[in-house]
Amino acid sequence: MPMTSSRGKALAGTVTVPGDKSISHRALMFGLLTVGETRITGLLEGEDVINTAKACRALGARIERTGPGAWTVHGVGVGGLVQSAEALDFGNSGTGCRLMMGVVGCHPIRATFDGDASLRKRPMRRALDPLELFGVRVVAQGEGGRLPITIEGPRDAVPVVYESPVASAQVKSAVLLAGLNAPGVTSVIEKEATRDHTERMLSHFGASVTVTPHGAHGRRIDLVGQPELKPAPVVVPADPSSAAFPLVAAAIVPGSDVTITGVMMNTLRTGLITTLIEMGAAIEQLNPRIESGEDIADLRVRGSRLTGVDVPAHRAPSMIDEYPILAVAAAFAHGTTRMRGLHELRVKESDRLAAVADGLAAAGVDYAIDGDDLIVEGTGRAPGGGTVATHMDHRIAMSFLVMGLATDQPMSVDDTGFIVTSFPDFIPLMRRLGADFA
Ligand SMILES: O=C(O)C1=C[C@@H](OP(=O)(O)O)[C@@H](O)[C@H](O)C1
Ligand SMILES: C=C(OP(=O)(O)O)C(=O)O
């Protein structure tokens, strides 16, 4: 469904965004890999995560929803997965698909992975390459290592030391999850530290995992295979990648004053907040606390005069999903914002570099792409008046709806249908803050 957003009054109020998508996928998968009952609260009930729950069921878990965001998983344990007769369909979700390839990888079963038209375009060799080192066999794959893909796990998996060629938490996690059912120590070396939710959850469920610094920005993770995971409750904090939308909306709409409660502040996820503060955004972190091993805080943000900044490439993993909405903030800043090292944006739900560029063009904003860098020329205002093609990409849809709240003329997006993958109540939540979406 198309939608149009228009400039109106200042945004105001206090909201809570849904649970973190990365942690929600992992909580279900760890539940599957644990014998006994795993209780999850605050689970993101978006389509991506629901597809992961369905796949966990197909692989042997009993999963119940006991209330809003409250789920219990009765798992089968590491080594206990059952073969599914049906293909596992991950819809729009790279995380669900790639992590589950790791979960299944070292089990001696056959599994077929599939997804929607967007996911079928995304590269999967980045997960299959390391899985083959464990002894996993790729039985069938689409052209260029695309979905649908069938793999078969070995009877005698061997542990792996893998230096990841891409800064990707999905690849790192696939390797670690596969290493769970290989004897001995599996290690991943990453040149750039990426989100560490898998490592944290491995410890939380009783596995032996050590993390050591590697080089200037990287890490080495060593995991002892074939542990008996112990059920542990998971409280999912609010998703900083979803908080990004009301956060930027409040920063660019003059006079706004919005508080977003209980947002996860894991420093491997807070690159956008760091950048917005550098740009001059009035963001206060209130009531900092630790819940379920994650730092969280309430974020108060007010309408701000933003200035263009240079965003270093090494910050990209800590805000990889936030560049579309940062580009929107940059359009309303005064001066040039250069975002460096964005090559990974080309392999998300859409080619986000191209989709953002087209969206900025539709809004009459000057920009340039220089190699892997996006340069936005902000003038403090943007004409708007265009329609943005969202290409089955939730973040493109939400970013340009936010943009229309501050452009001179309304902005339209061609399809809001994919917002349900990560932020099902985005539209009502933004309307409660005063957003004019029609
Ligand atoms: O591990 C995860 O939960 C995620 C990792 C990131 O992907 P990459 O690992 O491909 O960078 C991110 O874009 C995705 O939304 C969630
Ligand atoms: C890239 C994203 O997700 P995934 O890779 O799981 O599809 C995202 O949510 O922005």
UniProtKB/TrEMBL annotation:
InterPro entries: Enolpyruvate_Tfrase_dom, Enolpyruvate_Tfrase_sf, EPSP_synthase, EPSP_synthase_CS, RNA3'P_cycl/enolpyr_Trfase_a/b. Its EC number is 2.5.1.19. The keyword Methyltransferase does not apply. It comes from the Bacteria. Gene3D superfamilies: Enolpyruvate transferase domain (3.65.10.10). Residues 8-428 form the Enolpyruvate transferase domain. GO terms for biological process: amino acid biosynthetic process; aromatic amino acid family biosynthetic process; chorismate biosynthetic process. GO terms for molecular function: 3-phosphoshikimate 1-carboxyvinyltransferase activity. 3-phosphoshikimate binds at residues 21-22, 26, 168, 170, 321, 348. It catalyses: 3-phosphoshikimate + phosphoenolpyruvate = 5-O-(1-carboxyvinyl)-3-phosphoshikimate + phosphate. Signal peptide: none annotated. One of its GO terms (cellular component) is cytoplasm. Pathway: Metabolic intermediate biosynthesis; chorismate biosynthesis; chorismate from D-erythrose 4-phosphate and phosphoenolpyruvate: step 6/7. Phosphoenolpyruvate binds at residues 21, 94, 122, 170, 352, 395. Catalyzes the transfer of the enolpyruvyl moiety of phosphoenolpyruvate (PEP) to the 5-hydroxyl of shikimate-3-phosphate (S3P) to produce enolpyruvyl shikimate-3-phosphate and inorganic phosphate. PANTHER family: AROM/DEHYDROQUINATE SYNTHASE, PENTAFUNCTIONAL AROM POLYPEPTIDE. Belongs to the EPSP synthase family. Monomer. This is 3-phosphoshikimate 1-carboxyvinyltransferase. It comes from Phreatobacter stygius. The gene is aroA.
